[in-house]
Design a protein that fits this description.
The protein is an alpha+beta fold. The chain is built from 14 helices and 24 strands. Helix 1 runs parallel beside helix 14. The structure holds flavin-adenine dinucleotide.
Length: 404
């Protein structure tokens, strides 16, 4: 077998991008993918629309134990570079909310199909259903064992992603290959993931979605907060605000911290405004049950837990006084939910941690420990916020590795 080619393990965002960039320079590329088709995570992304990038690339939206590495990689590799790459494939991008970018077709499949077309056009050989199981390096040659036989090469790119979403190809295999060759790992935890609670009341509220605010407390100490959808489910809680908090929760749960959320179900109304809304609603000649009275302002499935947590003593509307109203307002704006777990890698969009980036050259993505071994994408100890930042990382590290 001709050893001159670059072998890339993983036909996800990073591997496909690297393969195209490398082959455009006239180099031979063999792309090995364990799934039966390429780009499965791209296809599933953004609810099938693919939030391909974010127009506003900001270092604070990426996380790693080595932020200087992120800074070095992103220098000169902002959104414009990614846009240019996709324009060269014939894919136009459009902007959505929060500066999120999408393919103009709003179809993730068009991203994958145009990447595949271009890869094949420039001569990339793609082999699906090919799971690499072992890698050895002897002298300057990498020898790969796979479900489709052995391969060898002088240049190897590990773009095999993280363990997030194993149903779409998420795997730890790249880490095993890299650690065998001397690399170290930063611990991985699920991120952009739903949260689980053992409290039974959430199950009774399953399906209720509110535009709220979730504050995270760890061991009783305020940590951070995120605004957005809160979706109660039969296992706990999901929604955009929760996904945005999940990185912090996941890391803290792994540290055995006690995590509790305080949910503000009406963040647009201050305590004072909510009190002023509720007070005039007290009708002194009505014996209306309190739960029915509250239905006038809040989803009925949430009323039971609000009454329980508020410890409101009265049961009918006209017994409400200022103090009882204050208790209700406090509960609506500080509903407590303890969190005992996340939905794990199966529910996660990404994983924190990965290959220790102090061992990788930020310009070329080449290993500082193993010559001609490269990394790209989520396999590295970098993860991004929701909003296209994870794909941005995959595209630009793919480009850097492909330019080597
Ligand atoms: C449901 C979902 C929705 C998402 N939506 C968005 C979004 O809208 N915007 C955004 O920015 N990010 C999104 N993400 C995150 C984004 O998909 C990932 O960060 C990105 O795909 C990482 O790219 P990658 O190339 O590093 O890894 P991957 O895309 O995971 O590709 C790695 C590939 O390597 C293959 N592989 C692994 N091991 C082997 C092996 N041993 N042999 C052969 N092949 C192997 C895998 O099958 C996989 O195809 C989403 C993720 C999920 C799960």
């Amino acid at each position: 077998m001709n050893n001159e080619k670059m072998i890339i393990i993983g036909a996800g965002a990073a591997g496909l991008c690297a393969a195209i960039v490398q082959a455009r320079q006239g180099k031979k590329v063999l792309l090995l993918e364990q799934n039966n088709k390429i780009g499965k995570k791209i296809l599933a992304s953004g609810n099938g629309k693919c939030n391909i990038d974010n127009k506003h690339i900001d270092l604070r939206r990426f996380h790693s134990q080595n932020p200087l590495f992120i800074e070095a990689v992103l220098k000169g590799h902002g959104f414009d570079v990614v846009e240019k790459f996709f324009t060269s494939l014939g894919l136009e991008l459009v902007e959505g909310k929060e500066e999120k970018m999408f393919p103009m077709s709003l179809q993730a499949s068009s991203v994958v199909e145009l990447l595949e077309y271009e890869a094949k056009r420039v001569g990339v050989e793609i082999l699906c259903d090919c799971a690499v199981t072992q890698i050895d390096k002897t002298g300057s040659t990498f020898t790969l064992e796979s479900s489709q036989g052995n391969f060898s090469c002088e240049t190897l790119l590990l773009a095999s992603g993280s363990p997030a979403a194993p149903q779409l190809g998420g795997s730890n295999s790249g880490y095993a290959f890299a650690t065998k060759m001397g690399h170290t790992l930063i611990p991985r935890h699920p991120s952009l993931v739903q949260l689980c609670s053992e409290e039974t009341w959430v199950k009774n509220c399953a399906g209720v979605k509110v535009a709220g605010l979730a504050k995270l407390y760890a061991n009783g100490e305020y940590i951070t907060e995120k605004k957005g959808d809160l979706l109660f489910t039969n296992y706990g809680i999901s929604g955009l605000a929760i996904l945005d908090l999940s990185r912090e929760v996941s890391t803290r749960l792994a540290n055995f911290d006690y995590c509790e959320l305080s949910l503000d179900l009406m963040p647009e109304l201050s305590k004072e405004k909510l009190t002023n809304l509720l007070l005039p609603r007290v009708n002194k000649v009505s014996e209306k049950p309190l739960n029915l009275w509250l239905q006038g302002v809040i989803n009925k499935k949430l009323i039971h837990i609000i009454l329980e947590q508020s410890k409101c003593k009265v049961r009918v509307e006209d017994h409400l006084n200022r103090k009882e109203i204050n208790k209700l307002v406090h509960a609506i704006k500080n509903l407590k939910l303890s969190i005992n777990d996340t939905k794990g890698f199966t529910g996660a969009e990404v994983a924190t941690g990965g290959i220790n980036t102090t061992e990788v050259n930020a310009k070329t993505m080449e290993s500082k420990l193993v010559k001609n071994l490269f990394f790209a994408g989520e396999i590295l100890d970098v993860d991004g916020d929701r909003g296209g930042f994870n794909f941005h990382w995959a595209w630009v590290t793919g480009m850097r590795a492909g330019m080597r």
